Amino acid sequence: MTITPTPARTNIGTRHPDLYATVGSMAQMSEQAALGEGISPLLIELIKIRVSQINGCAYCLRIHTADSQAKGETPERLSVLSAWKETKYFDGRERAALALAEYVTLIKDSHSNRGLYESAAGQLTAGQVSAVIWVAMAINAFNRIAISSSYKVAPAK
Question: What's the pTM value of the predicted model, to 2 decimals?
Fold first, then answer.
């Protein structure tokens, strides 16, 4: 029996660096928009982490969990983020932003979850709604790049 090795995945970021740079620019611009609309740096990181949890992107989870802790996020809040709806760790604005990020990430369910958008819009300004959606779209793009390119994730040595 001959075992055929699995071919290496194409790293789409290095294969088309200009496209990757465009996604990076979009991510930076979305973060600046969110900051400009009064979304805290910690909430921006929570959005990135929650979206990456949904998408199963270990690479982005590692990066943004470390980034959030460097910005002052607590391990306790991070430990319950995947079940945020069942906790009292997050305030109304955070809950609205997380719900909106989930709405955008789980777009296939958007028609049956229309109330999520309206509920979030009741807690956030129009500018904040827009900025949260852009942050969620940017991290969704990076999740897809990392997963489809099979970015390696290993413990630090």
Answer: 0.91
